[in-house]
Amino acid sequence: MSRAIIQGLSHLLLPAAMQFEQALHYPQQTQERVKRQVLKRLSKTAYGATLGIDAQMEWNRIPIVEYGDLEPWIQQQRQQPRASILTPERIHFWERTSGSTGAAKWIPYTTSLLGSFSAMFCVWVYDLIRHGPPLRTGKTYLCISPQIGTGEAGIDDSCYLNGYLRWLVDRFMVRVSGCFPTAEAFRWALALALLNAEDLEILSLWSPSFLTVQLEFIQAHQQQLQLALGDRISQQRWQLLSEPKISWTQLWPELKLISCWDRMHAADQAHILHHYFPGVLIQGKGLLATETPMTIPLLPSGGFVPVLNQVVLEFLSPQGEVRELTEVETGGTYELAISQLGGLSRYRIGDRVRVSHWYRNTPCLEFLGRGDRVSDFVGEKLTEAFVARILANLRVTEWGVCCLVPFIAHPPYYCLLLENSPETSETIATKLEEALLTGIHYQRARSLGQLGQAQVIIDKQVPLWLQQQGRIGDCKHSLLKVKPLSSFSKLS
């Protein structure tokens, strides 16, 4: 029955897929249509009125802005949710971004913006059904950051979907919901849910370490899980849980796709998943932000194509030029400015991309990292401003050169390198960890076991070592290193 439903779903998704395919052939015309939609909405707002915007004006009259420029308008919109301050549309809810730099950034979710996420999801799912491994059950686990203690819960991919599509997709979901007192309690509930899903075919998550840590949990608690599951699983699965080294492919024999980050810092963990699940398609995630969908993986393209019929993408070159989608060069690197249908226009989102190749008449974009300085191993999103404030409060910057560095380990962790200190490394490490835990995403990564506890190294050779790493020049150095290292080698 599930196979028939999957085929029926592909027919429902076909119009969205065909529209997207057409857009890839005519990217310039498609982007112009989205620009007109953005201008039409903007002309009906108080923000647009202050800019003298009308629906027919030149696009470049809209200024390129950052969140700080829009924050007064966003605050006013939150205070007057029914007024057309930043958007003329109904706001269904507000979604918070990391907030690691201090005050949280709030993004309004309107009908049109939700429609953009739904359109992206439709194209992705249709592509998997049409060009991916053959799906039989469609049983899927969409990762959700759990609510642990009094912390906030994340949302899974389906929360971005329109009502009818969410209802349909929900038929295939493996759900683990609710508030959990500890991360251990969540891991336990997730383990039971996954082990009960013998017909699991798709795992969609963000950081691959979310899954590798979960598999380690199952291996470590296999006997207790056996007792808890009892006769709810087959004798064969019971036996697999008895093995000293569990065969994950036998435990989920139907698994065909794992969707997760697989580039940059996530590459090593994604490689581990390749080892655990040989023959399973490990598909890299596209560029998706709280603010808007930007790219999606499309199997025939061999890369990540822009969601060009839902968002205007502009490319800021290192020379300060602003280029349109069809003006970028293969191999070129750019910072993105986006204009979406929910109220953000010509907004510098901070992500950097490289044009890898072209598909149809559209450039494919490879994510390179953040334009601003953000360290993001597993979704912790530590910004340099956040780290600088912590180190200033700890007063370690008064004792000489210092730098917070991400280190590759199992699990990865952050280490503060200090030139001098009147306090012991253990004392500082305790204070550092407490301060880092005030960042919601760092706290979540720690609670889920994706990051290890922060450490401290005190060594007079730190300045010279950092200089060799290219971190010191003209008496200035960064307080946060975003490129992870494997070790700190003392210098002779």
Rg (C-alpha, Å) = 24 Å
Query: Which strand order spans the largest sheet, edge to edge or round the barrel?
Result: 12-11-13-14-15
- The total domain count is 3
- The share of residues in helices is 25-40%
Share in β-strands? 15-25%
Distance between the termini: 68 Å
- The total count of strands amounts to 22
Q: Provide mean pLDDT, rounded.
A: 86
| Helix-strand makeup class | alpha/beta
> Residue ranges: pLDDT <50 for 5 or more in a row?
471-476
Shape: globular
Most strands sheet: 5 strands, antiparallel
Instruction: Report the total helices.
Output: 16
List the helices and strands and how they pair.
Elements: H1 2-25, H2 27-42, H3 46-50, H4 67-79, E1 91-96, E2 106-110, H5 111-131, E3 140-142, E4 147-148, H6 163-170, E5 179-180, H7 183-196, E6 202-204, H8 208-220, H9 222-229, H10 235-240, H11 248-251, E7 257-260, H12 267-276, E8 281-284, E9 295-298, E10 303-306, E11 312-316, E12 322-323, E13 333-339, E14 347-359, E15 362-370, E16 374-375, E17 382-383, H13 384-394, E18 402-407, E19 413-418, H14 425-436, H15 440-447, E20 455-458, H16 462-468, E21 472-473, E22 476-477
Question: What can you tell me about this protein's structure?
Answer:
The chain has 492 residues and is of the alpha/beta class. The protein has 3 domains: 2-114 and 286-370, no CATH class; 136-255, no CATH class; 374-477, GMP Synthetase, Chain A, domain 3, CATH 3.30.300. It is 37% helix and 20% strand. The chain has 16 helices and 22 strands. The protein has helices spanning 2-25, 27-42, 46-50, 67-79, 111-131, 163-170, 183-196, 208-220, 222-229, 235-240, 248-251, 267-276, 384-394, 425-436, 440-447, 462-468, and strands at residues 91-96, 106-110, 140-142, 147-148, 179-180, 202-204, 257-260, 281-284, 295-298, 303-306, 312-316, 322-323, 333-339, 347-359, 362-370, 374-375, 382-383, 402-407, 413-418, 455-458, 472-473, 476-477. The protein has a 5-stranded antiparallel sheet with strand order 12-11-13-14-15. A 4-stranded parallel sheet has the order 3-6-7-8, covered by helices on one side. The chain is globular and about 65 Å long. Mean pLDDT is 86; it is low at 471-476.
